[in-house]
Amino acid sequence: MSSISKVTVLGTGVLGSQIAFQTAYSGIEVSVYDIDDAVIAKARQRFDALVETYEKEVPGAQGRADAALGRLRFFTDLGAAVADADLVVEAIPEVLELKQDTYARLGNLAPERTIFATNSSTLLPSAMKDATGRPDRFLALHFANQIWKFNTAEVMGTADTSAAVFDAVVAFASAIGMVPIPVRKEKAGYVLNSLLVPLLNAAAELAAGGYADPHDADKVWCTATGAPLGPFQIYDIIGLTTPYNILSHGDAQMRQLADWLKENYIDQGKLGVASGEGFYIYGPAA
Ligand code: NAD
Questions:
Q1: For residue 1, what pLDDT is reported?
Q2: In the CATH scheme, what is the code of domain 6-183?
Q3: What are the extents of the domains in the chain?
Q4: CA-CA distance, 8 to 33, in Å (whole number)?
Q5: What pLDDT is attached to residue 246?
Q6: Which of these, 58, 74, 132, 147, could form a disulfide with 54 (CB 3.0-4.6 Å)?
């Protein structure tokens, strides 16, 4: 049983909308905060689209998904949004100063009991903990895109996070249908990206270097390990632009791989599943 019954989600973009919706779908009241009314209006559309997605893709969601909308309340006033929160999940843009400023405001506005969790993919919680004014009640809770299907929640504290807070957030993640993954020490990339990024980079090296075709690399990976998807199928699902952006900020070898992705795929509009073609052909653009 989770002790967390009132949740506020900051940011209603790709991930924030999914986290808020999944939480409401699980029966919890959710306050949703974003910067202005125009963004909130877009968020309402995102939530309506999520009802349809859940009804199509989540077994048993017919009728239930619609009810989740009734558990969402919308705010553009941060103080009002967090006034009674047990947990605030932050999913605002990946900009350290923006997150630090937001935590400094939150620290003054939220009740003392409120736990803060960042969904940041690339920033370590220790870079934000001091801004919160309550480092013992702050940690990372990292969801994956398409939370209803890819339902991991990596829970990662700093050296200052209290054990009770860590456990409460693990229990919350279970309560909303996630598979919680405790990360025992702070680690850039959590567990998932610590495994996935080297695999994807190694696959690109094999193909860009002319050692193996992408489809054959996937074939050996799936046949020999029993994995359901090969690295190039995963590239296509993620979309090639994100790995391209990461590689282009790396060392000389990584930048070569970025160029290879750009010249052979991205420049030809082959961006992955969403564009209808990447390393594989999927038909009309989704
Ligand atoms: P996004 O750009 O889709 O959404 C960000 C939202 O934050 C927007 O609605 C924006 O209006 C709002 N916002 C901007 N400034 C704000 C502020 N000061 N206070 C409150 N809201 C503000 O971003 P996203 O892709 O949802 O990413 C959000 C966070 O989730 C990032 O930290 C990212 O690393 C993490 N994340 C993203 C993914 C992904 O696949 N997109 C996966 C896991 C984690």
A1: 60
A2: 3.40.50.720
A3: 6-183, 195-275
A4: 7
A5: 87
A6: 58
Q: Is the CB of 180 under 6 A from ligand 1?
A: no
The C-alpha atoms of residue 186 and residue 36 are separated, in whole angstroms, by 34
- 156 forms beta bridges with 140, 183
Q: Is 38 in the pocket of ligand 1 (CB under 6 A)?
A: no
**Stretches in the chain below the pLDDT threshold 70:** 1, 284-286
Cα-to-centroid distance, 155 and ligand 1 (Å):
18
Class of domain 195-275: mainly alpha
What is residue 242's predicted lDDT score, i.e. its pLDDT?
A: 87
List the one residue out of 103, 67, 70 whose CA is nearest residue 88: 103
Q: pLDDT tens, 60-95?
A: 999 899 999 999 999 999 999 999 999 999 999 999
Both tokens of 213, joined, read 């075709």
- Tell me phi and psi for residue 72, to 5 degrees: -100, 135
Regarding the beta carbon of 189 and ligand 1, being less than 6 Å apart is answered no
Cβ–Cβ under 8 Å, residues 199 and 231: yes
Any atom of ligand 1 within 6 Å of the Cβ of 120: yes
